[in-house]
Design brief:
There is one protein chain. With about 325 residues, this protein is α/β, with parallel strands linked by helices. The chain has 11 helices and 13 strands. Helix 5 runs antiparallel to helix 6.
Length: about 325
């Protein structure tokens, strides 16, 4: 920081020019020195009452607090505002400190209360530790170091798969994430009809594929599991940018020996295809439509085995009986 004082420069007097003349060398040099001094800031000591407020500019982050808060603990801030050290101020009276102001609010809260919640992120905790060491806040620095050591000893999970507990939670998860979303709905509570012989195996295959994909692509895709119950039994749903892109329904109602059965399938190729398609929504506003058509093997999104309700099945079976009776009559 550049600062100049007039008492260190001898300005030669001139008999041919008046000191008050605008064109005199002394007045122009004085004006230059005064401008440099104001632009560069002012060094001064701060001696105020503890209840008085001061304005702090920490790397562009503005804070307003009392002298008593800054002097409360034995830190560098107490020394700065005790009157023994000079502090730098700008033309508007803001005290300048050349540090990042991201965590200075947390520093002030610790000075006020003697404790503060630590950040969850390891990077942010390390940043707070660096600031605590700079301001010589030993208690806060020790808390950060202990928390970092504890996090190093804790095993970090490879991936987290949220388990939906309500529709509102599902909407929040899908709308707040920036990743593509794959949701698997598993509902074994719907036991109105008996299952076919291969349904249990196929249901387990769907679950195993979901687990494998969540382990492999958890860094790029948000995988969520829905077990709160609905009319569906096994269904994959794919989302991009908060909206539904495709759906793969893995169950259907089939007829055998005058009884309805629930059939669960394992369309592995379709599931992989839709997962690859939603990766097109990664790091971009939306997929290229030509690219989507080139990678799609069907005309409409969400095709596959249809999911039918009991009412629709009843209507279809009734129409089928009417047609067969009419044909027999003819």
């Amino acid at each position: 920081m550049l600062s100049l004082t007039l008492d260190k420069i001898d300005i030669p007097s001139s008999s041919s020019s008046s000191p008050s003349s605008p064109s005199s060398p002394s007045s122009s040099i004085s004006a230059f020195l005064i401008n440099v001094f104001v632009m560069s800031g002012d060094h001064k000591t701060v001696i105020k009452y503890p209840s008085e407020y001061v304005k702090l500019n920490i790397g562009g982050s503005l804070h307003y607090t009392t002298i008593g808060t800054l002097r409360k603990h034995d830190t560098m801030l107490r020394a700065m505002f005790s009157g023994r050290m000079e502090v730098l101020t700008d033309s508007e009276g803001w005290i300048l400190i050349d540090r990042c102001g991201k965590h200075f609010g947390t520093i002030l809260n610790f000075l006020r209360d003697g404790s503060v919640p630590l950040p969850e992120s390891v990077n942010e905790m390390a940043e707070l530790l660096a600031e605590a060491k700079y301001y010589c806040i030993s208690e806060l620095a020790e808390s950060c170091e202990q928390a970092l050591l504890k996090k190093e000893r804790e095993p970090e999970p490879i991936c987290r798969v949220p388990l939906i507990t309500s529709q509102r939670e599902e909407q929040l998860l899908i709308s707040n994430t920036t990743k593509p979303v794959v949701k698997l709905l598993i509902n074994r509570h719907n036991n109105k009809y008996s299952y076919t012989s291969t349904s249990d195996d196929n249901l387990l295959k769907n679950i195993e594929l979901f687990d494998k994909m969540s382990l492999r692509f958890s860094g790029r895709v948000l995988f969520i599991k829905d077990v709160i119950g609905s009319s569906e039994i096994c269904c994959w749903t794919f989302y991009g940018h908060g909206r539904k892109i495709a759906e793969v329904c893995c169950h259907s109602i089939v007829y055998a020996t005058d009884k309805k059965h629930t059939k669960v399938e394992f369309p592995e190729a379709r599931i992989y295809e839709e997962t690859l398609n939603i990766l097109l929504y990664e790091h971009r506003n939306g997929p290229d439509q030509e690219l989507m058509q080139a990678t799609s093997s069907r005309g409409a999104v969400g095709g596959g085995p249809p999911c039918t309700s009991d009412e629709e099945e009843g209507e279809r079976s009734g129409l089928a009986r009417l047609r067969s009776n009419k044909q027999n009559t003819n």
